Amino acid sequence: MPLNIIVVGETGAGKSSIINLLADRDVASVSSDVDTCTKAFAEHKFKVNSTEVCAYDTMGFSSAYVDSLSRLVPYEKACNLISSLKSKINLVLLCTSKDKLSITTQHVYHLFNDFFFDGTVPIVLVATYREKETSMDSWWGRNLKDINKFRLRFAGHACVTAQRSRGPGVDLRYQQSRDALIQLFGTATPHRRVVLNEPVYPLFNRLADATEILTEKCGLSSREAGLLTRKVNPLLRIANIVLFGETGVGKTSVINLIAGYSIAPVSSGVRGCTLDSKEYRLTANESHLRIFDTVGLNSPTVNQSDYLHAIKKAYKLIDALNRAGGVDLLIFCMRGGRLNDAQLKNYRLFQEYLCEKKVPVAIVVTHLEQEDNMEQWWENNGEDLRSFKIDSIGHACVTAINKNTHLFKDKLEESRQTVLRLLRTCVHEPGTPFFMETDKWLSAFLKKMGHLVRGGNLPKMRAIREKLVEECRISKERANAIIEELQRQE
């Protein structure tokens, strides 16, 4: 699988020359960006040492006056590139030939980091045409203050020249520049393993905030931003997955299993508050995913105090899901063994109460390391789950315990591949997720969760209102509207 790179920058920044420098031969036509106006991008494949590289050369961005139709063209071409991609991008090279950090370079950075990739792809800065500098890297020193001031989080940089000297012998500056570019490959996201980390903006909703990003960070007018967002909104959807189950069933270990290494901290078994959640960003099977790791019920019922404590957690989770675009898939994580009441209530809490039976469920059965054939558990118990009306569109029987023995390592790898196959089956392209307006969603959920309160009585509305205002930090007017809706619902 090749290393996929997008090369972007201002008009005349030397993007094609950088591709030729990497390839160590002429593979990209070096010409004015005007010549590429009829194409969204040019794709070039070559080898760098033993690494297969696929580099996408893009149209240059200009700083033309606001509302210029020609100024919007590079943005549209970039959208065409993103929509045409079949594989994930590992690295973005942002090129600049200016002596000082320009506003256009800042705009291009935010277009790719915030708008297209939501912080999931590393961006490196390449300062070009540095052949006249005594020390080529001095450009970085001169501009570092502004880079930090404008919060441009580059994963690396290279200050280079793509010009070859005409004299005999080894061209030291040319080779130095090529080596500096190749070293940037070390910042690229691994393409042979799943990448899991927290995004730059953990709860960033690019669908709702796309126009704001384009106008405030990318330099477009409201009119230009509106035109562009209508074209690219379908491209920006990321599938959102809610992982739920009792404490101790191994939800976090399942995330590490998908990652292939320990990235999410595994709890010591101390119980968290019901509906506590943490968001992770995951790239699996060449698809971007968000996974919300949640804390479920540990008993079939809750008391009024537990209910009140869960209100803030429920609001945080629902608000996050709403801003992230809704829920595409639920993953019910359960321990292999006999089904208990707490597991049944967890299923209802998330599938029925939170998602109103409108989101598909996949099941991951854990702690099966002692089974000779882990899949046998499903053959023996799958029908029982269906009899309890626990429906699913797919399942995986696994172990997520990472013990340093040959037997466990084999089962761990088998389990990882099983879960990845489940994700391939259940998560294709993001479809139509389930979501509601936050306050309406919260009031509906709190009403249904009241069925789990011992005795069947909700806490006093005054206590619920205090939680909404003081801990969820919403206005009294909104809190009163939620209470009214809560009382109105049947």
Features:
490 residues, alpha/beta, 6-stranded mixed β-sheet, 15 helices, 13 strands, globular
Proportion in β-strands: 15-25%
Query: Residue-averaged pLDDT, rounded?
Result: 84
State the share of residues found in helices, binned by percent: 40-55%
The tally of strands reads: 13
Given as residue ranges, the uncertain stretches (5+ residues, pLDDT < 50) are: 33-38, 191-204
Q: What is the CA–CA distance across the termini?
A: 55 Å
Outline the structure in words.
The chain has 490 residues and is α/β, with parallel strands linked by helices. It is 40% helix and 16% strand. The chain is built from 15 helices and 13 strands. It has a seven-stranded mixed beta sheet, with helices on both faces. About 4% of the residues have low confidence.
Topology summary:
Layout: E1 3-9, H1 15-23, E2 41-48, E3 51-58, H2 69-84, E4 91-96, H3 103-116, E5 123-127, H4 138-149, E6 156-159, H5 172-183, E7 195-197, H6 206-216, H7 222-232, E8 239-244, H8 251-259, E9 277-284, E10 287-294, H9 304-324, E11 329-335, H10 341-354, E12 361-366, H11 376-387, E13 394-397, H12 406-426, H13 438-449, H14 461-471, H15 476-488
Parallel strand pairs: 1-3, 1-4, 4-5, 5-6, 8-10, 8-11, 11-12, 12-13
Antiparallel strand pairs: 2-3, 7-9, 9-10
Helix pairs in contact: 2-7, 3-6, 6-7, 9-13, 9-14, 13-15, 14-15
